[in-house]
TrEMBL record, chain A:
Region (Disordered): 160-184
Record InterPro entries: BlueCu_1, BlueCu_1_BS, Cu-binding_ET, Cupredoxin
Positions of the Blue (type 1) copper domain: 42-151
Gene3D superfamilies, per database record: Cupredoxins - blue copper proteins
Originating species: Sphingobacterium humi
Annotated protein name in UniProt: Blue (type 1) copper domain-containing protein
From TrEMBL, chain B:
Keywords on record: Signal
Record-linked PANTHER family: LARGE, MULTIFUNCTIONAL SECRETED PROTEIN (PTHR33546:SF1), LARGE, MULTIFUNCTIONAL SECRETED PROTEIN-RELATED (PTHR33546)
Name of this chain's protein: DUF7133 domain-containing protein
One Pfam family from the record: DUF7133
Gene3D superfamilies: TolB, C-terminal domain (2.120.10.30)
Record-annotated DUF7133 domain positions: 75-227
Signal peptide per UniProt: 1-21
Entry keyword NAD: no
InterPro entries found in the cross-reference section: 6-blade_b-propeller_TolB-like (IPR011042), DUF7133 (IPR055557), Quinoprot_gluc/sorb_DH_b-prop (IPR011041)
Amino acid sequence: MNKNYALLLLGLLLVLSQGYRNQGKDEQAAKKEIKISVLPGLQFDIPRFHVQPGQQVTLHFQNNDDMDHNLLLLKPGTRVEVVDLATNMGAKGMAKDYIPESKAILWHTKILHAGQTGTLNFKAPLEEGVYPYVCTLPGHGYIMYGAMYVNKSGKMPSLAQDKNIPPSNAANAHAHHAHQDHPFEQKPPYYYRTYMEGASPAAFAVRLSDQLAFCWDATHCKLRYIWSGDFLDFTAIWKGHKDAKAKVLGDIFYREGALPTLQIGSTAHAEKPKFKGYKLLKDGHLEFRYSLAGQDVFETISLAPEGKEIIRAFRIPNLKQALTFQPTQLEGAGSFTYQGKPLPGGKLSLDAQAGKQFTLVYSLNP
Amino acid sequence: MKRQFIYLLLILLGFSACQDAGSDQKEVFHIDTIKTPDGLTAEVAALDFLPDGRLVAAFMRGEIMIYNPKTAAWSLFATGLHEPLGLKVINEKEMLVMQLPELTRIRDTDGDGQADDFETVYDGFGMTGNYHEFTYGPVSDAEGNLFIALNSSSSGGGVSPELRGDTLGIGRAKEGKPMFSIVPYRGWVMKISKDGQVTPFASGFRSPNGLGIDAKGRLFVSENQGDWVGSSPLFHVQQGKFYGHPAGLVWTPGWNQGNPFDLGAEKLDSMREKPAIIFPHDLLANSPTQPVLIKDHPQLKAYEGQFIIGEMNKERLVRVALEDIKGNMQGMATIFIEKQGLRKGNNRLAFAPNGDLWVGQSDHGWLGDRGVQRISFTGKVPFDVQDMNLKQDGFDLNFTNAIADFGEVPLDSIVQIRRYRYLYHQKYGSPQVDVEAIKIKKADVKNSNKKLSLQLEKMDAGFVYEFQLNQVFNKKRTDSLENRLYMYTLKEKLF
């Protein structure tokens, strides 16, 4: 059955390529119109096209993806250089549409949001060559690019041997592109249970926003680290049949050790914490529950509405003893505050009443 | 223009070639492929059914989705799960899910069709972060006890800096690269009683990718060929027994015999419980998966009480007919469905309430396929060997239909019997050894021509007896036997 499909496909391709070849002969003088959109996994749907030197070209770039993109046409051989420049623009890039200062850039669109179309009208260069087009949003340009062939002969290498187009590699599709990895759109907050670096194998990764995520460890029943930037790369782990961990794509800016942060009563807990599960709250945040010194603890880690603070909220409804909160902070400039004040000596002590429900705040821009 | 015409012709030829597969099996069942949602990597990790006939499917990337066969619509029930390789529906708002780190009860408490509460039922086993620490089940017996199985860890992978569970260094071979068990209960089947009591139930499993309970409540577990597993078997699993892979023995309560790998093959062989069924490698199954029981199935009455088992490496499902020989389970295995549109990677199976058999496929870096297929049965009884019965000096082969007179054809060209064994050793897999052709002393056709009784020259425990049947027709000679190979695992003789 599969073979028959392949045959059918082959037939269709051949018929189509005949059609294209005939069309090609008439294009010399005519104005060329190119339509490009986006495929899942950071790819332009057209990996390359051909124009005659000096030909008038109209290029419509339709961003049908759900993330932002732009399109730049560049001088031959300058793609990586321009992409690096765009990457180095850092936080200032957005305001400038991720268009760096460079003489290598011939034409470009602005940032196109989901559903928007940008149009470029230009006269193709007279000099024959392979002119890259690329999206320079952070991370995209290394895999999201294509090639405009400018020559009189109309010749292009076979697709399989073309070094000017991205290797059509499914693995690329996974990198940086978590929301394309499932049959639904992922909007933070959302989570995965997966193998993570710097945690036990029973780990949670929770994405709080496009720029923030944390790792929570179900073995130790505690927060392990928080990072900023992109979320996770599952490429290796989803291939299967080999050891792998979900790779943290951003920068870890806060990290705790495996030792207990929460201490109920004055002596060390006789038993290890016991993970009991979690609730998916209406707003998508997770409320972890576990028992500590025989007490049920409920913990939620969320982002304040303005996105400037991480809120760590605890409920221990049946608390009968005093408690302390003292993270073994291994990394991180900032620290948690309680009622607007830093923890004295890095340690918060609460009596049985105050400890029934309390909130700690980590300011992201102290 | 002329050339385009030829391409068109090629296309048409391609279509017509699709239609020429007419066989007797085709009248017994048909297979269709279910369209899965765009964006889904359909590596099926688990399947089960809601009482109303909707399919629940879990996938390796952590989704649980519900498919309504009436509307062909998929909906999302849960996401973010850690390789949910097992699923047991309680009702449409509650199910048990076996993930790598735990058995979880997931519930939709607000009735919006999506799970919002995730309760850890059991996570008291260890993890090293090794990729092969798969978890299987749960299945439940009549009393409501749950059984799960924990894969041993693969030497093809390593161990993370942080573990879960207290480690013992001795569940690992000093030489060679067999699977290992350095955290609790890797390589075990665990029992979880209704009140939450957990019992380490049986040990010695390497990669037990399939649990099933038969009509009498007996637990069966399939196993994959590899180190200490000569050819993939199906075990009848009973409490306290050891099933052959040494690594997990260290977690036997009161274990005081040091590194189990040091005991040697002979000693380990004397300790182990042998398979109820051996699937000869490359002949029947190389990577058997989940057994599902044929129970009260109107179209498969001939096979009532038997198991259908998936196979990863071929476009095949396997059928197992067991018999109880004085408390010892053993029996026959053969092909149930081969090709006919079925794909490879048949990792998970589930019967729908209406009797359709749904198959979920996966590869996950191994040989296989992806997606969901549905097998509907027409009710026509295929001409086949229904089951086999062990006799003092041979076997009875029971056919689903009366067989035609063999006429002038000599018996030994119609029935050819071989036997062979597999070695029990640390090496990965075993060749067939002690292979020999077995002579038939006497053959009788009984029971209105539905039973072929064979007396054999040699009957010895520990061998697989392989029956190859050629040119066997049903009474009216309308059907010939589609299957040719039937393997009986002679674990114990009748005495």
